[in-house]
Amino acid sequence: MRYVSTRGEAAPRSFEAVLLAGLAEDGGLFLPETWPTLTLAEWEALRGLPYPDLAADIIGRFTGDTFAPGVLLAMCREAYAGFTTPAVCPLVQLDERRFALELFHGPTLAFKDFALQLLGRMFDHVLARRGERITIVGATSGDTGSAAIEACRDRAQLDIVILHPEGRTSPVQRRQMTTVHSPNVRNIAVHGDFDTCQDLVKAMFNDAPFRAEMNLSAVNSINWARIAAQIPYYVASALALGAPQREVAFSVPTGNFGNVFAAWAARSMGLPISTLIIGANRNDILARFIGANDMTARPVAPSLSPSMDIQVSSNFERLLFELLGRDGAKTAATMRAFRETGAMPVPDAAWRAATALFRAHAVSDEETVAEMRRLHDQGYAADPHTAAGTAASHHSPPDDARTPIIVAATAHPAKFPDAVEQATGARPALPPHMADLYEREERFTVVPNDLATIEAAVRAHARRNM
Ligand SMILES: *Cc1c(COP(=O)(O)O)cnc(C)c1O
């Protein structure tokens, strides 16, 4: 299994190289040279397997010879052992045709744990074999920081430093980061906002000597391994509802287009998915694209579903490459035009091909609140992202009324208690393993917005220098 870049200029390479590189040197994203497909018998053999076993089978079709036999399975078992339900991603029926695929039973209560819990272990394994160490730095306004910290904590070959804007993250999200007491984890609160933190991280990466000294790395949302690790839950849920003999549809609340692209990948492997519904919020670039081939970037506006407050969905480039017949030069030219003009010129035929599979709806905050209330009245507590997914599935269902719709429930309601309380009047409780989150001791350093000070803090933390 080899990987090519969506911009066609980078030489094909292995899973291991793609895992470590993240982005291709031509600026493109990596995709498998060809999609592995499963026979009917192979799909059927996966039905009912324990989740880690199913995940290792599916992911193993993408990892080539990076992991010796048995190693990937052991990593999957470890990665998902910390999830609080043995099903790992249980399906909960919402109405006669809708099911919530609960992806929030991991350590940070959101679906990013599925990929990051495995990625931390993959990195550790590969780096140990190569005798290398890396320092991961990142900026967060909440969500990704905690998932990355949980993924990297206690890993032997990694140190991680996460910058967050002082006083500007929600208490739940900050505490999920700052109460992790592991020697390789360091939290820094910066005087400033999220953009300040992001600029500091960029400046560290642009400081070539520092970058080399620390062997800086990022757990980017564009890393192919993250997408690969998100394919198995689409497979498991579709099989549970009758695939491969029966078609299913998925509705996915989307920001960077990563999670819904994983569903697209499952379809490319032969899983019978009739429709993919994109749930967006007021940041509606994907809904405008599907509706009218209008891919014009606009300023980001805050919403009740902050993890989808994104205007340029970086993983969309992967779909674009496929829609353009895997033509790297065309993809590169289209991305260049998008960067220069703010509007992506997608050919009409490619757009039509996308609309045959995708539906999309931009869910307003008012609709999100109404949907959370409606679900609450029917006995289901949904977070605002999940509610955007179910609302989109009501607005734009698949044509065949008998096709089951599986909605990706991407976060636990307790992760967004204010929005849930505003909608339902009831404040969601933290799950038992986190019930004492507000009593745990927080550890973080407050630093001014100053590159030299922050670089010194990173240098002092990284164990490579000890
Ligand atoms: C990250 C996130 C999303 C968006 O996922 P993408 O892969 O960026 O589309 C949706 N919901 C929640 C809760 C998230 O944390």
3D structure, described in words:
Its cofactor is pyridoxal 5'-phosphate. Its EC number is 4.2.3.1. Belongs to the threonine synthase family. This is Threonine synthase. A hairpin with a 4-residue loop joins strand 3 and strand 4. The longest helix has 19 residues. This protein has a 6-stranded mixed beta sheet. A 5-stranded parallel beta sheet has the order 8-5-6-7-13, sandwiched between helices. It has a domain of 215 residues: Rossmann fold, CATH 3.40.50. With 466 residues, it is of the alpha/beta class. The protein has 20 helices and 13 strands. Helix 6 runs parallel beside helix 7 and helix 17 crosses helix 18. The protein starts with a strand and ends in a 5-residue tail after the last helix. The site of pyridoxal-5'-phosphate has 15 residues, from helix 12.
Main features:
single chain; 466 residues; alpha/beta; Rossmann fold; six-stranded mixed sheet; five-stranded parallel sheet; 20 helices; 13 strands; 43% helix; binds pyridoxal-5'-phosphate; Threonine_Synthase; threonine synthase activity; Thr_synth_N; threonine biosynthesis; lyase
Q: Which helices and strands occur, and which strands form pairs?
A:
Elements: E1 3-5, H1 15-21, E2 30-32, H2 40-46, H3 51-60, H4 71-81, E3 91-93, E4 98-102, H5 112-130, E5 134-139, H6 143-152, E6 158-165, H7 171-178, E7 185-190, H8 194-206, H9 208-214, E8 216-217, H10 224-228, H11 231-240, E9 248-253, H12 258-268, E10 273-280, H13 285-292, H14 316-323, H15 328-341, H16 348-357, E11 358-362, H17 365-377, H18 384-395, E12 405-409, H19 417-424, E13 445-447, H20 451-461
Parallel strand pairs: 4-12, 5-6, 5-8, 6-7, 7-13, 9-10, 9-12, 10-11
Antiparallel strand pairs: 1-2, 3-4
Helix pairs in contact: 3-4, 3-11, 4-5, 5-6, 6-7, 11-12, 17-18, 17-19
Pyridoxal-5'-phosphate (PLP) binds next to α12.
Domain Threonine synthase N-terminal: 2-80
Enzyme class: lyase
Keywords: Amino-acid biosynthesis, Lyase, Pyridoxal phosphate, Threonine biosynthesis
